[in-house]
Amino acid sequence: KAGVTQTPRYLIKTRGQQVTLSCSPISGHRSVSWYQQTPGQGLQFLFEYFSETQRNKGNFPGRFSGRQFSNSRSEMNVSTLELGDSALYLCASRVGLAGALSPRETQYFGPGTRLLVL
Amino acid sequence: AQKITQTQPGMFVQEKEAVTLDCTYDTSDQSYGLFWYKQPSSGEMIFLIYQGSYDEQNATEGRYSLNFQKARKSANLVISASQLGDSAMYFCAMRGPVYNQGGKLIFGQGTELSVKP
User: Fold this and answer.
1) Are B98 and A102 inside 8 Å of each other by CB?
2) Do B33 and A50 touch (CB under 8 A)?
3) Nearest CB partner across the interface for A88, out of B43, B98, B99
4) Do B95 and B107 contact (CB within 8 A), yes or no?
5) Quick one: pLDDT band at residue B1, thresholds 50, 70, 90?
6) Across the interface, do B45 and A114 touch by the CB < 8 Å criterion?
7) Which helix (H) or strand (E) holds A88?
């Protein structure tokens, strides 16, 4: 089974621009999460989508948004880029069992998109 | 609030020796899961091992084992017979019940492991 894929892998933008990152989950996975990784803040949760609905959101400004399509693929968008948005953006997918009580569901990560804002 | 603490920013280990990476956590949830991920320089997070809060036995996956001490709120990763390819960043992560927190993972700051030949 193919793993989580993310495109593009590398991206250079300038301040004020906007960017869209794409994530294709593992086949059969219905939940997609996004994380931002920076040297200073570490790994931080951005948001999670399940069945095209945002189910959980981290503490990020409204410039960060996302969506999920009916085939579970997800995109995240960052508008009005700032220098501090330079980071590795990781996407992760999990099966997304409805009503699951167990935290056992493992999230599998993609290779990430490295965004550099100049 | 949930929190993960990894107190070892960097560690060295000789090839073929065992190494323990420390992780302590804090949560008020009764049901939670603890994960370890490996991140090579390429950036991808690779799942290594999982331990559930109600699991009575310590988890093992090949050369990886998790030393789970619930009363002390610690979940240390033990890598036996280290290999050069084990050199990477290692992250401990926690998640509460999926039904009210979804898939959100809380990560520690990571430990950079270097394996010396």
Assistant:
1) yes
2) no
3) B43
4) no
5) confident
6) no
7) strand A87-94
Q: pLDDT tens for residues A77-115? A: 999 999 999 999 999 998 877 545 555 688 999 999 999
Closest approach of chain B CAs to the CA of A79, in angstroms? 23
Sign of CA dihedral A57, A9, A111, B41: negative
Q: With an 8 Å Cβ cutoff, is A39 touching chain B? A: no
- Supply the pLDDT for residue B99: 67
Contact A41, B107 (CB under 8 A): no
Q: Which residue of A has its CA nearest to B41?
A: A111
What's the confidence (pLDDT) of residue A45?
A: 95
Which residue among A31, A43, A108 sits closest to B47, beta carbon to beta carbon? A108
Q: What tokens appear for B4 in the block?
A: 């993960």
pLDDT, residue B100, reads 66
Q: Can you read off the two tokens belonging to residue A11?
A: 């991206």
Q: Is A92 on the interface with B (CB under 8 A)?
A: yes
Q: For A38-78, what is each residue's pLDDT tens digit?
A: 999 999 999 999 989 998 899 999 999 999 999 999 999 99
Phi, psi of B86 (to 5 degrees): -80, -10
